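Handout, section B. The chain below has 770 residues.
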Amino acid sequence: MQDAEIVKEFLVESHESLDRLDQDLISLEKDPSNREVLASIFRAIHTIKGTSGFLGFNQLEAVTHVGENLLALLRDGLLTVTPAITTALLAMLDAVRQMLDSIEAKGNEGERQDQELIARLTALLKTEEGPKTDFTGGEQAQTVPNIGEILIGRGAANTSDVHEAVAQQNAGDPRHVGEILVEKGVVKPQDVVEALNLQQQARGQSASDSTIRVDVGQLDKLMNRVGELVLLRNQIVQYTNSTEDSELLGTSQRLNLLTTELQEGVMKTRMQPIGNIWSKFPRTVRDVAVGCGKQVRIEMEGKETELDKTIIEAIKDPLTHLVRNAVDHGIEPPEARRAAGKDPEGRLFLRAFHEGGQVNIEITDDGAGLDGERIRNKAIQKALVGADQAARMTEREITNLIFLPGFSTADKVTNVSGRGVGMDVVKTNIEKIGGTVDVQSRKGEGTTVRMKIPLTLAIIPALIVTTADDRYAIPQVSLLELVRLEGEQVRKGIELVNGAPVYRLRGRLLPLVYLKRELKVGNTAEAVEAQNVNIVVLRADDRQFGLVVDEINDTEEIVVKPLSKQLKSINAYAGATIMGDGKVALILDVLGLAQRASVISEVRDRAVAEKQERQALGAAAGGQSNAVLLFQYGESGRMAIDLGLVARLEEFPADSVEVAADQEVVQYRGQIMPLVRVSEALESKRQKAAAAANGSLHVVVYAEKGRSVGLVVDRILDIVEESFVMQPHTGRTGVMGSAVIQKRVTDILDVPGLLAQTQAMQLSARPESQ
């Protein structure tokens, strides 16, 4: 049992060392003079070799021994780091990693044939090994750096001086290496004191003093218990909110606070920096670049950005594929880059940052970019999209075709790419965890792949809705807004386009999905014919659609539970949760629901067709598409104002209006904003009566040169985007002309003219000064 614990500890420490060694060797290749990195690599390999010999793993000891010999020559300055040496040492690390995996799985190193690797490492030992030198003077090298290494690494001593001191000590000199160097005058006493302090710090500040290793299974169990506690908290809070017992209410609030703090604390124990997986990418980039004959440097920003461990595991493979793809597909060979006027060395930039409760990850290369026309032709050739559909697609939609299953533009299959698998798997894996992926590219300049992924999957904020007396949870990350239609709004607002229901939201068609109909629950006819309609506006695959539900309840934090195997195959559900009253609610998979209802492709095609139709109508009529705000003035007048002139829409109580210098004003955002009553200015006297009846003023805020003016209207009607031809008016101040908008004659407001007229009227109404 004790031996098993020792082996387990050895495996954990060795894997940690190997993850660091990959990065250290790449760094050493770029800066061969870095003595500290070289010493760190030597110590790590020496430790693995020594422990493997002690535990009887002879094959592992043999491979690391010859690697240690090569590193010793590098450390002593008898060899210099070359690409061949780096490649051989990386191959040694791969062999060590394989043997450690075998030891963990089977208890032994497995059947190995490492003679060729050992011979390759031995052949690189071009310089005869001199007498065994040890900077510590007799002590075996260990994880704590010795005095000689520290002095050399700090530049306080030369390698030859330290070797001479060690040789003198081996010949019988009883003094320490530091004393010999000081008496020779080649090292200052202060340097030796500082080296001893650094050695003591390294010896005293071991990781075991400040950290402990905890099995991931234990953390998962703890997270599950906290999840159950959150559910219990929700039940108690729901019960106590309806009670008048102040003492019980106070206790409930305290429990709520403590549960939240405990939840946050446990979440932090599962959080890991994304740098844990990024640390492997320098090795990946080097290997792929060498195999492709390219020169690529990798830069990283935001390595400290933290995600839940389950998220880290889920995105590791997609990120690795994207990095390999960028080097193999994106960045050109050196000669091609020179011909294009670029630096022969390509640049791959990784960036991670938190934004809006999510983590954004960007992978950018400065390569050749994506050829949209080539992608379009390949997609048509492989029958992934139709020719008509491809012709209607925007540049961004064409670029995102690379995520279709089976798509590849590679002319030949390599060990990196060209088999038509990969990018679709990347998209699928990211979407499984509730994330999104998007690609943007400019031909000749490079490509950027952006991911948005949730921080955690365990406990998430969600909107609770009800349909057919059953509750469902919608992850808040997909939620955009809520819309409620009542009475006449339902009949006028919901239209049918090609047989599919849509709602015109601020002038744009929003496809509607009736949850009852998609889940086949309750009376679907009632859902379509309802007097009041609740629409949850959601985003899926960067597209918007409206989910029609019976009731919208509230938002709350929910604990995500996995689905049973009977429900896993249904793409409308992402999981389940237990509500405050102890009942189960299913969590809706927004993307799956959109795909199930076929709204994603419908939205894309309908939006393109609608845009083309608007452009065609506008061109035929000699007009152009404009976004305008429609409002009512007087009893039946309709007027439009260019939406670009509108800063905000506000509603003020009638009693908030004050008078300053004979001008109606309101206090607005720390300023005094003058009001202009549009109906009065246009010589219609109905405005004041309407305002008094409503008890409030509907105001369109117009901003110009840092100054705001409020245009008081009777009622705001709609915001639309429509092509129209304006017929100009002559002789009517404040009105530019008229046009047919939404099949009704509508006046077009001339805001500058209206304000100029109002100002002139005010000046003329003031008595002249005596």
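Note. The mean pLDDT is 77. Compare this with the example in section A.
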